[in-house]
Amino acid sequence: MSGRPDADRDTSAAAPESGAGTQTWRVRVDATACMGTGICAGVAPGRFRVRDGVSHPTDEFVPPTQQVVDAAESCPLEAISVTHRDTGARIAPEE
Ligand code: SF4
């Protein structure tokens, strides 16, 4: 044991934009619910891409970022889910 609290964590996929924390979030779009409005792509540019009428996250795993929360909260069909990668705990949209 090294004694470092984060010594056993895989932070390779986590590149915090602000340097705050080492969490990684998982972003998913329910293709059966998505209507391809493109709102998410407008709210979070570069985070979602609408293709063939369905939105897709550009990256499934992202560092914590308010943009994906805003996108999930803005989706009129609640097709976007943001969860903690490791715990699966729901981050957005709020229940
Ligand atoms: S805002 Fe929701 S319904 Fe609209 S494209 Fe994005 S995921 Fe699909």
TrEMBL record:
Residues 25-53 form the 4Fe-4S ferredoxin-type domain. PROSITE patterns: 4FE4S_FER_2. Its cofactor is [3Fe-4S] cluster. Keywords: 3Fe-4S, Electron transport, Iron, Iron-sulfur, Metal-binding, Transport. Gene3D superfamilies: 3.30.70.20. InterPro entries: 3Fe4S_ferredoxin, 4Fe4S_Fe-S-bd, Fe-S_cluster_ET. The keyword Phosphoprotein does not apply. Residues 1-26 are annotated as: Disordered. It comes from the Bacteria. Residues 1-11 have a biased composition (Basic and acidic residues). One of its GO terms (molecular function) is iron ion binding. Ferredoxins are iron-sulfur proteins that transfer electrons in a wide variety of metabolic reactions. This is Ferredoxin. It comes from Streptomyces mexicanus.
